[in-house]
Design brief:
The protein is α+β, with helices and mostly antiparallel strands. The chain is built from 24 helices and 18 strands. It is a multi-pass membrane protein. It is found in: Cell membrane.
């Protein structure tokens, strides 16, 4: 018994030792045992004395606090290195390739002077050699590869500029023009806009002829089509620059579109020859496609009349010049104008419709579907369909970009790869940047890729979040419950899509257009289901059109467009905000960095985007609104005078320009000048100092005067001989005379002449509100030396300081003796 007892004691001691050692190896329980005992008493406490169970949320907070308490610089550095290594393993380096190319392209178009080819090639070769030599040092190698890609982006911009080489008209002139019609567009005003390849000019014969121009005509012959050789006397105008500094540059856009001038026919053009025998094959093909587009558009307008027919033609063949301005404005205010422009939405709906119809048709043959890759067949058919849609829609830039993106995704399906990934988006971005680097600085590229990247990144993040969770099988529901759930899911998905895309593009829209659509979410939720049905009917009508059976689809499409127009007009009338003014360039740059980080990173490093977002929001107002804006032709001066009003110097200002200025200066109404005759005693030039701050323009004796809210006086004169009249009191004098000069010779008076504006573009003037003895400062839209898209400015009569051209008077006939 004693031995047995000692054995038992030893066994117990051994078990106790094991238990004590196990306490340090086993994790502590997350909560107290279910029946706690007061230590030393053996008594169970009352229920009120039992510690409350810890909630999961509280546990997460405690763990987060512990982790934050353990954070140190070495640990943080190690964690960042580990996460960065994981990001590289997941392929983030490839996703950043288009980002580096875009940085290089933006850098090229932002340069103050045109770089030389040898210098850019030398930079590319040098960075390439450095990247090749540094392969043994991974971090250094990545840095040099990024520099190489940026240099390639610079070189791509230079190559495109050299390749395009558009000849731009330098000065306004009237001439007899002969050329071949490239396209015809019926405008909402009733005029016809013609794009013409110029073949000859006469009376006078131009020595420097633009290759392609865009002219409008009141009426054209019925037999005129794309490819027709026409002639007519036309007034040609050089491409205009930005309507204000840092705004959209129309001269830049014209250069890369190949348009060297614009204007209008002084009479009706005539057809010289409708034969295309002497045309090259490429021109014949282009003319044939354009005539087919016009024929389809006319057929659609004949079936669906009014604005609905114009929108239907825009959705199917991309002809949108005839849409009424009030409908365009309503869709812009509600944030649904992207529906009109053929882009990713339309391409995706066409591809989805074709794939859905074909897969539904294949499902009717189960044996065939089980043995064949019908999904690939449908994807191939969808690829052919969107290629045809791209061609018939006019091959516009937005459609090209959308086609590349969808083509990459459909080809991925053909090769059994995931279709919707950031990698495929990167491939499409690389293709666009290499082919058309100038698109990177435009709103279409920036907003399209920002929205798509945000949606793909959000979708991937949500998919990763759901992949790690086990879900019970869905409960059985009745048919109404099933339909209600699907409807709610579709509505929620549409709402989240609109919120994500809208948030990603909001600052870009404000930067480029100075407008915001606060009710865009409501508008998109209300209209997108209609648009989906409309695009399905558009595809159906296109398939049935060759058989003459498309009228039911077009009729229903028109009814859907009627509902869309009514909804957009109703929401537009109730939209509280439109123009929001200017924002800083730094905020756009910071939000771009945040978007790149958030969409390319897959680890916790995406949290690095948060500081950039906060900094972007904080720097939004970090810009100064101009006190005065002046047009590049010196014909219009405008300034805000408070109360949401914009004072202008002309009774009938340019509507497009004033609309842009109103949004930039946060004004809602314009105040035209009031003119007084000389000597009537109501207003004299000497009364300028007595004007109250915020006084609009008053015109008398050849001078228009206004007073800014800061107290600065602005004078506008048509003749340089009248500029001296305002030297004694004006802070700013604008002289609408190319032969004008600074007649004041006073450093406190800023004088801007028509010649300066012709050479440097539109101007923004800023007054110093802190000091009355500090002269005003001016910022011009165009810098010198000129880049290729601005080089034509120095050839105008105004830029050379010459007065407007006047035809010499014919000598009077001498009567016969």
């Amino acid at each position: 018994m004693a031995g047995r007892g000692r054995g038992l004691d030893q066994g117990e001691d051994a078990n106790v030792g094991v238990s004590e050692r196990s306490l340090f190896a086993m994790p502590l329980p997350a909560s107290p045992p279910p029946s706690p005992v007061i230590p030393g008493t053996g008594i169970q406490p009352l229920q009120a004395d039992v510690p409350a169970p810890v909630s999961p949320a509280h546990g997460r907070i405690v763990r987060a606090r512990r982790r934050l308490g353990q954070v140190s610089l070495p640990r943080l550095r190690h964690s960042v290195a580990k996460a960065a290594e994981l990001e590289l393993d997941r392929g983030i380096a490839f996703l950043l390739v288009p980002v580096c190319l875009a940085i290089g392209a933006i850098g090229y178009f932002s340069l103050a002077a045109e770089p030389d080819f040898p210098k850019l090639i030398a930079v590319v070769v040098l960075t390439g050699i450095c990247a090749l030599v540094s392969r043994s040092w991974p971090k250094t190698h990545l840095c040099f590869m990024a520099a190489l890609l940026c240099a390639l982006g610079l070189l791509a911009g230079k190559v495109e500029t050299w390749r395009v080489g558009t000849q731009m008209l330098g000065s306004e002139i009237s001439t007899q023009l002969t050329g071949r019609v490239v396209s015809l567009e019926q405008m909402e005003t009733g005029r016809i806009r013609l794009t013409i390849d110029v073949t000859a000019t006469a009376r006078p014969k131009l020595r420097y002829v633009p290759e392609r121009v865009r002219l409008s005509a009141r009426k054209i012959p019925s037999e005129m089509t794309a490819g027709s050789l026409i002639t007519g006397y036309a007034k040609l105008l050089p491409p205009t620059g930005p309507v204000r500094p840092e705004s959209y540059d129309f001269s830049f856009d014209s250069y890369f579109a190949g348009i060297g001038g614009s204007g209008f026919f002084l009479g009706n053009p005539k057809v010289v020859s409708a034969s295309d025998d002497d045309m090259p094959i490429s021109a014949r093909l282009s003319s044939g496609i354009e005539n087919s587009r016009e024929a389809i558009a006319d057929h659609i307008r004949g079936t669906v009349s009014g604005a609905e027919g114009e929108i239907a033609a825009a959705l199917i063949v991309g002809v949108r010049a005839g849409i009424p301005d009030e409908i365009n404005e309503a869709m812009r205010r509600t944030g649904i104008y992207h529906i009109i422009s053929i882009s990713g939405l339309h391409m995706a709906l066409v591809a989805g419709t074709i794939m859905g119809l074909l897969r539904g048709a294949f499902a009717l043959f189960p044996d065939f579907s089980a043995r064949r890759p019908v999904k690939k067949y449908a994807a191939a058919a969808a690829l052919v369909s969107i290629a045809a849609y791209l061609i018939i829609s006019g091959v516009v830039v937005a459609a090209e970009r959308s086609f590349i993106m969808l083509a990459v995704m459909l080809i991925a399906v053909l090769f059994d790869r995931a279709a919707l990934t950031m990698r495929n988006l990167a491939i499409s971005a690389i293709a666009v940047i290499v082919v058309s680097p100038h698109e990177v600085v435009g709103p279409s590229f920036q907003m399209s890729f920002a929205a798509t990247a945000a949606l793909v990144g959000a979708y991937a993040g949500w998919a990763d979040h759901r992949a790690g969770k086990s879900r019970p099988p869905p409960p059985k529901r009745s048919l109404p419950g099933f339909l209600a759930r699907k409807f709610l899911l579709a509505t929620g998905g549409l709402a989240m899509t609109s919120i994500i895309a809208g948030s990603a593009t909001a600052l870009f829209a404000i930067w480029h257009f100075q407008r915001v659509s606060p009710l865009s979410l409501v508008a998109n939720l209300a209209i997108m289901p209609i648009v989906s049905v409309v695009m399905f009917l558009a595809v159906a009508s296109a398939l049935l059109m060759p058989f003459g059976l498309d009228w039911p689809a077009l009729y229903l499409m028109g009814k859907g467009l009627t509902a869309m127009i009514a909804i957009s007009a109703w929401i537009s009338d109730r939209s509280p905000v439109d123009g929001v003014g200017l924002i800083s360039q730094q905020s756009v740059l910071l939000v771009t960095i945040a978007l790149v980080i958030a969409t390319t990173a897959t680890t916790w490093l995406r949290l690095a985007a948060v500081p950039f977002v906060l900094a972007s929001v904080l720097t939004i107002p970090d810009t100064r609104t101009p006190d005065v804006l002046i047009s590049e032709d010196a014909r219009l001066v405008a300034m805000p005078i408070g109360g949401g009003e914009l004072a202008v110097s002309r009774a009938r200002p340019n509507e497009f320009m004033v609309d842009n200025w109103k949004r930039a200066l946060r004004s809602e109404a314009i105040v035209v000048p009031e003119t007084f005759t000389r000597g009537d005693g109501q207003f004299e030039i000497a009364d300028a100092t007595e004007l109250p701050p915020g006084a609009p323009f008053y015109c008398t004796d050849g001078v228009c005067l206004a007073k800014h809210t800061s107290g600065a006086i602005i004078a506008y004169v048509e003749d340089r001989k009248d500029s001296w009249k305002a030297c004694g009191f004006a802070d700013l004098i604008v002289v609408n005379d190319a032969t004008g000069y600074d007649a004041c010779h006073n450093p406190l008076v800023l004088v801007i002449t028509k010649r300066q504006l012709a050479r440097k573009g539109s101007a923004a003037v800023f007054f110093n509100r802190q000091s009355a003895i500090t002269p005003a400062t001016v910022s011009f839209a165009v810098d010198s030396p000129y880049r290729p898209w601005h080089a034509q400015r120095k050839f105008s009569r105004e830029a050379r300081g010459l007065p407007p051209y006047k035809k010499p008077e014919k000598p009077a006939a001498v009567p016969a003796q």
